[in-house]
Amino acid sequence: MYGIKALMSQTDRTTRTWEKVSDTFLLPRGFVVLLLFALLLLGGCRISRASVTPYLLRGDYAAARDVVERQVVDDRSSRRYMLDRMRAGVLNLDAGDAVRSEAWFAEVYDVLRTQGLNADKTVQSIVLTEGVKVWKGEPFEQALALTYYGFVQARLGSWDNARAAAGNALFYLRDFDADREREDRLIDTEEVARRAIEYERRHNEGGGNAPSGDEYLNNGYVVERSNYTMAYLLHAIASQQLDRPDEASDYYNRVLQLEPGLRPVVQRLRNGDYNTVLVIAAGIGPRKVATGPDGAIAAFRPSTFSSIGPVRVSEPGVGAVMIPPVTNVNTMARDHRWNNLEDIRLAKSRLGDLAVTGGAAALLIGADNSSEAAMIAGGAAILAGLFLKATARANTDYADVFPQRLYLVPLTITRPDQPVSIKVPAYNGDHTLVIDRWDVPLGPDAALRYVRLPRAVTPIDVPSRPARQIVPGPGQPEPDPPRRRLLPLFR
Amino acid sequence: MTPGSWHKFVNRLSRREAAAEHSQEVDRTRVADSLRPFASLWAGLLVLLLVGPMLVGCKTAPTTSRIAVEDYQAMAAEMSESLRHSDAIEGRSSASAPMVISFEKVRNLSSEIMPSGEQWAVVAMVRSAQPIRRLWDDKRIVFVIPARHTIDQRDTIDAERADKGFGTERAVTHTITATFRSVTRAQSDRRVDVYACQFEMIDIQSGATVWIDEFNFQRTAHGDVRD
């Protein structure tokens, strides 16, 4: 009888325990629903936008540009402000409209040159998600955007700005941590800079040499250390165009150190045996994905696989030359990934696992011992763990319009209808692109022409716009007036 | 078993059960006590996760080391003073023959990208600065946009509204060229750009440089360079 009583008492206690569990979590139930909703929202912090890859593959760059320009937001605090502009800038150049591209890149540059944009969002980005920050891109995306701005400036005849853009592209790929060991370099900035500028002015005026001891003072400039060959090459060409032979030579040397296979190209450029620089873009740049536990690790995966396959360029009277790619964006993405929050995201994921496991154990112990405090602790730990795991996911916003590789070919164009054949077998097989509409440079400055190769196997009409200071080829369309004006200069 | 011994047995069993219940209660209390800090910790963490970011999100102003409007204004004032005390201009008065100085295109050797439109905006800013404009009253000196640029502008989208002859009959006596240079020093959280703007005035008739000066200014930006 007493055994039955004890059994009934035990059953009663168990029932009461589950009632307590039920009662304990009745109050926070609404809270849990809200939390789950918040987690869903956080997961949706990634920018949603239409993919333009199909347009790029078939060479319909104007259509891709139109799609992207329709999505552009003007709110400078919006996460997509710069991403939209970067995409629009690249696609306008792909479509052959350097003037419109310049307007977009001017705004991109303004954002890139602004520091501490996300300084007040550091804590939120750690605790919540990176999606709360204004998107500025990975270092390699920033460098590529600046390189494209350099192409645009060169296309418009401003080699001085192309030089500045290439210099900035190298700047954003610098290892700033290494500079921490050289604190003294910043302390005496003004004096060093003043002397460097003084030297450069005297040097330009045919004055003497400055005393050695600092690279700036030796040269009036510094060759930034990076492995971004295209920026070095663009800087070298721009310096050459600006009649700065020593600087150009130093940058050409750096190109050869990085890519000895470019020796024939550099040799021709050094000799000045060109009046047109043809930049060829091919493929689709790598895509950003979230991998690892809870997607905490951001990685770039190739869309177009890397290849050292050269471009074959045929000029009448000159013959065919094979030129290797100058830049492989897949490699850049691997080398210049900015993983400053990756450790934090991984820690959040692991802490989340721990909290969920510990919380579940505490919940069971609490239920078994009829301890309300233990159950609350367990429930809170599970929620906190789920929150940590959900917010550990890496943000995968990226500029999806960059090419996978870039080639650079020096040419001598003497006739507006001079046919030049381009073929990249490693990318689009037997397809040959023939460009027979050129802008012949009038003055001493070289012109820059940019083309993006489609994956198509049918002939396409490569867009072309006459640049400033150069003669339009016959039958070329007049450039459209820019749809957008530059924003006010100093905001 | 006698009724007395049965009674003792039941009493002993009841006491043992009561003791067991008491022991379980003590255990429960002990578990609850041991888990209380754990509960407080996780509850606190949860609150921190949700509320913390809103509290800590204090606003700090983004900065840039690009050239700013006030730099150009200061430069224009210094330039005006430098011109007033130059040999070429010091002897001039309001009664002198007009000196028309055409601002040629800026040569940008700095690390700063200055698109063509921006370069002309800088020229316009310097031209229209009060100290520069006062040079007309005191010294009969006026700064103008070069005719070539005016013609370029005329050929753009507002061509039909522009005065076709504007700027072509100006009797320019001197030209000014501007060269921008800069040096950058940076760490991951700080960037310093020192700019040097050199102006050189050339007498068109003689081809001689009649005035040259340089104006320096420094801009520092704080915050992560890449973020």
Summarize the structure in short.
With 491 residues, chain A is an alpha+beta fold. Chain A has helices spanning 2-26, 29-43, 53-58, 61-71, 81-94, 98-112, 122-127, 139-155, 159-171, 176-179, 184-187, 189-204, 215-219, 229-241, 245-258, 263-270, 329-335, 342-368, 372-391, 425-428, and strands at residues 114-115, 276-282, 287-291, 297-301, 311-315, 319-323, 327-328, 405-411, 420-423, 432-435, 440-441, 447-453, 470-471. In chain A, helix 9 (159-171) runs antiparallel to helix 14.
Number of contiguous helices of chain B: 6
Share of β-strand residues of chain A: 5-15%
Strand order of the largest sheet of chain B: 3-2-4-5-6
- Compute the average pLDDT of chain A: 77
- Name the strands of the widest sheet of chain A in spatial order: 7-8-2-12
What is the CA-CA span between the terminal residues of chain A?
A: 88 Å
Q: Give the strand content of chain B.
A: 25-35%
What kind of assembly state do the chains in view correspond to? heterodimer
- Which pair has the most extensive contact? A-B, 80 and 77 residues
Structural class of chain B: alpha/beta
Task: Categorize the overall geometry of chain A.
Answer: elongated
Tell me how many strands of chain A there are. 13
Alpha-beta classification of chain A: alpha+beta
Count every beta strand of chain B, where a strand is a DSSP E run of 2 or more residues.
Answer: 6
Helix content of chain B: 40-55%
Residue stretches of chain A low in confidence (pLDDT < 50, at least 5 long) are 183-187, 206-215, 457-491
Average pLDDT of chain B, rounded to a whole number, is 78
- The termini of chain B sit apart by 88 Å
Individual helix count of chain A: 20
Uncertain ranges of chain B: none
